């Protein structure tokens, strides 16, 4: 029996893999030691587990285990990277370059720094959701200390040209930070080959636990330093104080190991399901995929259905846990700033659904999702005066709308 | 958002979805809202010209669950009412009947405006003076 609702919001969070849970459990009870306790076996055991997790993580992203700083998650890592670099390199300059489609954890951190004197360039994206490398290069100045561009976008899954971006940053002597939250564990990420200086990522986006994340900080060529954002016991090479979340770290380590071992098989299976879902939903007239379909995560698709309204659509697909392009928390719906940045009109941005598949998604669930969405869109369109006008060939722009 | 059972019922089983022939003299059509605002409501009434009773009402709505429910409920209420009785429908009655949350009161206002616009259209078609502009909610 198919269990409803069906979870297709894995870009928001993933379920914990049972293999990860199994690895974590002893560290809550039996091996509960503080990894900073140097004087007894409990501490040593915890430290050993943490070191092992560092190795598992390092193997996934091709770094040195010492380059991993544990945090509470990607938001903290984003803050530590951007604020930490800004404070550490203030003497060199105050300019940061980022993009309009970044996660709020990056955008709001940049806005915060602007109040403290930072100059921030927010690069636009094209209709595919990609930044323009020439625009990036044109924005570089001798004062540029940091380029912060996400690896893959959470809403549309679009993957930025990371190697080209890092090469430009390097050419101008700036550091390159990437928010790797959606990409690490899903697609091959290699901090050396990709030229990444700092990278944030999080456990719960890759079948690991919530409340644990990491920041990769390069130690060589160049040696990168960040100013700590928390004062305390000087844990994590002084960059992030606080007692280590040992079970969480063990879970993140295990999740990374599983991601490395299962990635190829997972990707193949998930991408096939995603492509089928997308192909079927695109048989609905006037439906569009948002963002590049070529440079994209294998498990994500974001589709707009014209002439249906976002919140009405969300109500119509009640058996699916998906995310909508509008934040319908108020009377005036706010369309997604990411979709707006691609140049989508408000109505098209409102009427979009984001599907995020996972390792645990089944063909049966996809079959159900296809039927459910098709039914909801068809029903809402039959009820939509805009759809009727469209079918009659009336130009909706020719109508004088009584705005409310 | 937690909706009342009545909103969910009207959303799932909308009453009187459809289109009346707007070229007919005894049909009034009201189209209110705007696509960018996320709501467009079209309400139509068919009036018996001898009795001035609304014999049929249809709607089509592009909008959220509350907007669909408000217009569906409005068509139910319109049928069988005289045009004058229909004019007296107040948006707050819709709010109460559907237990709309405060942020969705706008949807009931839209429905009231759509009723007034449909009646106006009917009046103009039949040589009656236009009603004074429906109260402004903007």
From TrEMBL, chain A:
Binding site for [2Fe-2S] cluster: 328
EC number: 2.8.1.7
Function of the molecule: Master enzyme that delivers sulfur to a number of partners involved in Fe-S cluster assembly, tRNA modification or cofactor biosynthesis. Catalyzes the removal of elemental sulfur atoms from cysteine to produce alanine. Functions as a sulfur delivery protein for Fe-S cluster synthesis onto IscU, an Fe-S scaffold assembly protein, as well as other S acceptor proteins.
Locations listed in the record: Cytoplasm
SUPFAM superfamilies reported in the protein's UniProt record: PLP-dependent transferases
Cofactor(s) this protein requires: pyridoxal 5'-phosphate
Primary location group: cytoplasm
Biochemical pathway: Cofactor biosynthesis; iron-sulfur cluster biosynthesis
UniProt-recorded name of the protein: Cysteine desulfurase IscS
TrEMBL record, chain B:
Any one GO MF annotation of this record: iron-sulfur cluster binding
Residue stretches making up the NIF system FeS cluster assembly NifU N-terminal domain: 2-126
BP terms from Gene Ontology: iron-sulfur cluster assembly
InterPro entries: ISCU (IPR011339), NIF_FeS_clus_asmbl_NifU_N (IPR002871)
Gene3D superfamilies in the record: 3.90.1010.10
Record key words, sorted: Iron, Iron-sulfur, Metal-binding
Domain of life per record: Bacteria
UniProt similarity note: Belongs to the NifU family.
Known role: A scaffold on which IscS assembles Fe-S clusters. It is likely that Fe-S cluster coordination is flexible as the role of this complex is to build and then hand off Fe-S clusters.
NCBIfam families attached to this UniProt entry: iscU (TIGR01999)
Protein name: Iron-sulfur cluster assembly scaffold protein IscU
Name of the gene: iscU
């Amino acid at each position: 029996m198919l269990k409803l609702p069906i979870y297709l919001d894995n870009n928001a969070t993933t379920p914990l893999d049972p293999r990860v849970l199994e690895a974590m459990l002893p560290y809550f009870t039996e091996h509960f030691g503080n990894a900073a306790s140097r004087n007894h076996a409990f501490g040593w055991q915890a430290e050993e587990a943490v070191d092992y997790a560092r190795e598992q993580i390092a193997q996934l992203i091709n770094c040195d285990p010492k380059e991993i700083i544990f945090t509470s998650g990607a938001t903290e890592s984003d803050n530590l990277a951007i604020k930490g670099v800004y404070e550490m390199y203030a003497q060199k300059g105050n300019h940061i370059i980022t993009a309009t489609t970044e996660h709020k954890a990056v955008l709001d951190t940049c806005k915060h720094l602007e109040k403290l004197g930072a100059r921030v360039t927010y690069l636009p994206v094209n209709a595919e959701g990609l930044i323009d490398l020439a625009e990036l290069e044109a924005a570089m100045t001798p004062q540029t200390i940091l380029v912060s561009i996400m690896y893959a976008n959470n809403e549309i899954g679009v993957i930025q040209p990371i190697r080209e971006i890092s090469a430009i940053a390097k050419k101008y002597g700036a550091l390159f930070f990437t928010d790797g939250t959606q990409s690490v564990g899903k697609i091959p990420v290699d901090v050396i080959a990709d030229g990444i200086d700092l990278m944030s990522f999080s456990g719960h986006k890759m079948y690991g636990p919530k409340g644990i994340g990491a920041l990769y900080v390069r130690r060589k060529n160049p040696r990168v330093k960040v100013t700590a954002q928390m004062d305390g016991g000087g844990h994590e090479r002084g960059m992030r104080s606080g007692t280590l979340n040992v079970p969480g770290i063990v879970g993140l380590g295990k999740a990374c190991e599983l991601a490395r071992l299962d990635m190829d098989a997972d990707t193949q299976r998930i991408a096939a399901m995603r492509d089928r879902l997308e192909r079927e939903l695109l048989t609905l007239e006037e439906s569009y995929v948002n963002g590049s379909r070529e440079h994209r995560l294998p498990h994500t698709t974001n589709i707009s259905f014209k002439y249906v309204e976002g919140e009405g659509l969300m109500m119509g697909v009640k058996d699916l846990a998906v995310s909508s392009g509008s934040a319908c928390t108020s009377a005036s719906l706010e369309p997604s700033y990411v979709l707006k940045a691609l140049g989508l009109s408000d109505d098209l941005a409102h009427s979009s659904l984001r599907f995020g598949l996972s390792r645990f998604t089944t063909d049966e669930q996809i079959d159900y999702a296809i039927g459910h969405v098709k039914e909801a869109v068809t029903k809402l369109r039959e009820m939509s005066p805009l759809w009727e006008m469209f079918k009659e060939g009336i130009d909706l722009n020719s109508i004088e709308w009584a705005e409310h | 958002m937690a909706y009342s059972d009545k909103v969910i019922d009207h959303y799932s089983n909308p009453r009187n979805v459809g289109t009346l022939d707007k070229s007919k003299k005894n049909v009034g059509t009201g189209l209110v809202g705007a696509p960018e605002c996320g709501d467009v409501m079209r309400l139509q009434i068919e009036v018996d010209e001898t009795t001035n009773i609304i014999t049929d009402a249809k709607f089509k709505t592009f909008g959220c669950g509350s907007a669909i429910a408000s217009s569906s409920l409005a068509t139910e209420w319109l049928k069988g009412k005289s045009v004058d009785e229909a004019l007296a429908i107040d948006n707050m009655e819709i709010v109460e009947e559907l237990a709309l949350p405060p942020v969705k009161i706008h949807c009931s206002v839209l429905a009231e405006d759509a009723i007034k616009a449909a009646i106006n259209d009917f009046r103009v078609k039949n040589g009656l003076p236009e009603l004074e502009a429906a109260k402004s909610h903007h």
